[in-house]
């Protein structure tokens, strides 16, 4: 079953170097993170404070790490933010329409436009999803997204009624975003990567100061830029169907830098929240034909999640010894289970 090789766990203070290595290796894919060891240390420290109940609403969030169960190597990550935009505004574009009509000239035109907005303020967010190349074909990304949902299910009161995830937008052969070149560069006079670095360093006020306040008419943009609005980078395109199956959908919000689509969901109706439940585990041999499950055990720093086959009867799940070891639990322990229908 995809994902059985890995465990997802919560980052601790011992993981600063491993997390920082992912930030550097991603080469800008983790655009919310400044490329300094101090920034990585601060991100992990927020997770530690959140686990301890010491983080306020403006900063509470968690980093989950994908770990090779055999070698202990960290192979990916995802970050959960409980509430976005409470300390500094969270900006995105909302797709809308403006109608221009004249009865005198018998003319009527409907134009697609982008509005700069803060509509998603207060939502929870999944971001900084990154999986090393060697783990991408082994179910690493799917495991991280399911782990995030099972983690939320266990701490539901901390998260907002809506959850979002921004998808990386389309880029050209030179790795430049046609949308950024047509819109952002006209107001920032820097490259997209540099603007993302400024945001990662916490310098977000410049967005409000420099971005146009009036609607952006898509029809006035070059065709290459128009075609990317609501688009998805090929690297993450395969993730979208998985997220849609879990309850995420497109609600006409796009990223302000590359116009990549923003997926939204009602947190309580996410597959991993609404359809998971807690059962008692037993040691056994479920067999190769047993159903596949996403499994999570433990709380706080002890949270661990993996995938395995198991036989469920009433509220008891029979798992093999290796699956119990990966979960860090024993027979008689309690785990949260979610059917892996596509595994």
UniProtKB/TrEMBL annotation:
Keywords: Acyltransferase, Arginine metabolism, Transferase
Entries under InterPro entries matching the protein: Acyl_CoA_acyltransferase, Arg_succinylTrfase_AstA/AruG
Protein name listed in UniProt: Arginine N-succinyltransferase
